[in-house]
Amino acid sequence: MLPSQRHLFEIPREVCYLNSASYSPLPLKTLDAGRAAVGRKGQPWTIDPGFASRQHERARSAAARLINAAPDDVALIPAISYGVATVAKALSIPRGTRVIVLENDHSSPVLEWHARAEAQGFIVDTVPQPADGDWTSAVSATIERPGAPPVGLASISSVHWSDGGMIDVDKVQAALRRHGAMFVIDATQSAGVVAMDVTSLDPDAVMFPTYKWLIGPYGRAFLYIAKRHQNGVPLEQTSSGRRNVNSENPVYFGDLAYVDNATRYDMGERDHFITLEMASIGMEMMAEWGAAAVSARLAMLNERIAGGVRDLGLDVPARSVRAPHILSLGMAGGIPKELIARLAAENIHVALRLGRMRISPHVFNDEADLDRLVAVLTKSLRG
């Protein structure tokens, strides 16, 4: 099994950080690269002409590797909201159909469709949060609901941010295919940890940022968009998205036709010399460890926590319905804010999400971290 990688991060022994589903720490290697990149920006005359292009393609290739995509099928974007807006502009949703979203899903894969529904003539159909935590069955039931309008699109997270509920995207895709519907996946809480192969899955779009599980910086994200949708109009009009708009040519606007791949959807001002390299490093590290190894380690850590708190009267979702890397604990009346604050006072960092305690370890955590958490919870709940 993959051992703890704590030595690759700047995390003091007394800190028990179990909140990677919010923000992950940066590896030492990434911190060093960031400092060097700031210095490089301070002396722009040292940057060679091909540097920006190499940075773009390194990041694009690293992101593509995580989901088994071709690099040219991946666009550089700043955020999931940008990605969903890009996809919404590129896709054509039939009037009179449903766009399926998850109850309490994060704002990005949901709000864009609410904003477009009336004008484009579709309805937003929300999958209720299941009491048993089985999101896959809940999504399937919504797709197949008798008497409902046809499904045009599902826009959902592959792992629910609030409770760590796992959605079996293969089963959902199979159901959507039977209805001739499209599939847009927000992989924020799964990329790099839960394996995804877009070549076999064939979704219409997948997007993910780097600042959570991909141990990267804020403001860098990536959009995979299927080749069948690479003929759309981008959200922004940029020179990089056109075949030949080049300031070094005698004629600036040489060829205004769009490039024939997903790079037409790249964001404007994509030359982020500092954070693109930082994002690449984190994604490359995750790919080297491999999703299977990372997932197995984090599943082991969360199972250790689940076993340790099982007699404390906490609600622990069944292992069969939760993601391997996120553990959500509940209690009657909801987890009190004071309990989260007490843990923080002990230098144990978790998150309160929709009345539940969300615990999200990463590769830098070890068994000592989890035993501390269980010990403090036991003392707090048993008095």
From TrEMBL:
Pfam families: Aminotran_5
Keywords for the protein's UniProt record, in alphabetical order: Lyase, Pyridoxal phosphate
Record-annotated Aminotransferase class V domain positions: 52-351
GO molecular function, one term: lyase activity
Name listed for the protein in its UniProt record: Selenocysteine lyase/cysteine desulfurase
Lineage, highest ranks first: Bacteria, Pseudomonadati, Pseudomonadota, Alphaproteobacteria, Hyphomicrobiales
